[in-house]
Design goal:
The strands form 3 sheets. A 6-stranded antiparallel β-sheet has the order 2-1-4-5-6-7, with helices on one face. Strand 12, helix 10 and strand 13 form a beta-alpha-beta unit. It is α/β, with parallel strands linked by helices. Helices cover 45% and strands 22% of the residues. The longest helix has 40 residues. It contains 11 helices and 14 strands. Helix 4 crosses helix 5. It binds adenosine-5'-triphosphate and magnesium ion. The site of adenosine-5'-triphosphate has 14 residues, from helix 1.
């Protein structure tokens, strides 16, 4: 798939623009603070109905304006599809084919994006939150069901944590109600974990291959799902749900004492290993970067295999963070098949590595 055109009104520092993109490589050039990242962010918002850098939609609206509007046309195998997002102080509306979508989980998935920014090099080095966010954002785009389960899970988790706090402070004492919440949480939690295991196994296969190419067969990358469940992770959804329920029963006094939920996918993590050693702990800087790059590139292939089409790729300032070999691998992996938007302060180094002329956009103060 690719994004044919984009129209923005009052989005960040853009007043009104309408641009047509190349289905291949689009290069955004400009000095600092001119709007390069804002443009990538706009594409991300059009895909995900939310920003990758803020939870507050209001920040996306141009200063002193009441609302922002984003529209794009996506070309997919089945034809071309208009997407629209309207943001104002009261909230947002998302339309597919000019029809407003009641649930954002129905909107997401029409334009699939993978964003790669310098922070993503933290995928390996960073906290489990970074990895969970990565998994949830990417798998959510592939599978609307995953996204739905996740939304439900988060809502119940919030309720359950509130109730645990009330129990902790002796403002409530209904343990039956806690059990109802535990049961619901286990049901959605089990569904989430099962999907994560399935997608991670496939992602691992691609990442292994890509990593071996980058390291010329010298390193063997593998993943390990680290569950907050004490027992070994079972493989079927029902078994996992049963284990979660058992876990909640065992942990009850501890959870009430701490006033929070200690078990479930929101506490799980993925460990990346090279030759069976945790890269986060034992890996060098270079190994951590290569692992992050392999995982990101693998995600492109996972999306292709699950949805039948390649996603689009947003690269914000990453090329300058990678050395020559890794730059070459990245560009080789995407050229000719993945529509790419990349920001750079200057053209010189990358154009030599591109097989085809990119479409170049000079960005200055939101134009
Ligand atoms: P760099 O090369 O430093 O990363 P950039 O071109 O990526 O720069 P952006 O992050 O896209 O820069 O744009 C930053 C500019 O957008 C800032 O000058 C900021 O003041 C402006 N900006 C951010 N939010 C808004 C908003 N809501 N309304 C108007 N302008 C905004
Ligand atoms: Mg930027």
């Amino acid at each position: 798939m690719y994004l044919e055109e984009l129209e923005l009104k009052n989005f960040r520092n853009y007043r009104t623009i309408k641009v047509e993109f190349s289905p291949q490589i689009n290069v955004l050039i400009g000095k600092n603070a001119q709007g390069k990242t804002n443009l990538l962010e706009a594409i991300y918002v059009l895909a995900m109905a939310r920003s990758h850098r803020t939870n507050n939609d209001r920040e996306l609206i141009c200063f002193k304006q009441k609302d922002a509007f984003l529209a794009g046309r996506v070309t997919r195998k089945l034809g071309s599809l208009p997407l629209e997002i309207l943001l104002n102080r009261r909230g947002k509306k998302a339309k597919v084919n000019h029809l407003e979508q009641a649930r954002l989980s129905q909107y997401i998935g029409h334009l699939n994006v993978i964003l790669f920014a310098p922070e993503d090099l933290l995928l390996v080095k960073g906290s489990p939150t970074v990895r969970r966010r990565f998994i949830d954002m990417e798998f959510g785009q592939i599978d609307p069901r995953y996204l739905y389960n996740l939304t439900q899970y988060r809502a119940i988790l919030k309720q359950r944590n509130n109730y645990l706090k009330q129990l902790q402070q002796k403002k409530a004492n209904d343990l039956m109600y806690l059990e109802v919440l535990s049961e619901q949480l286990a049901t959605f939690g089990g569904a989430i974990i099962v999907k994560r295991l399935e997608f991670l196994a496939e992602l691992e296969r691609y990442a292994k291959e890509i990593h071996a190419q980058i390291t010329q067969g010298n390193e063997n990358l593998s993943f390990k799902y680290e569950s907050s469940l004490k027992e070994d992770l079972k493989s079927t959804e029902n078994e996992i749900i049963a284990d979660l329920k058992k876990g909640f029963a065992n942990l009850q006094p501890k959870e009430i004492f701490q006033g929070t939920t200690l078990l479930g996918p929101h506490r799980d993590d993925v460990v990346f290993e090279i030759d069976q050693k945790n890269v986060q702990i034992y890996g060098s800087q270079g190994q951590q970067r290569t692992t992050a790059l392999s995982v990101k590139l693998a995600e492109i292939e996972l999306m292709k295999s699950q949805t039948g089409e390649y996603p689009i790729l947003l690269l914000d300032d990453v090329l300058s963070e990678l050395d020559g070999t890794r730059q070459t691998h990245l560009l080789k992996a995407i050229q000719g098949k993945v529509q790419t938007f990349l920001t750079t302060p200057g053209l010189s180094e990358i154009t030599q590595k591109l097989i085809k002329e990119p479409k170049i956009f000079h960005i200055e103060a939101g134009t």
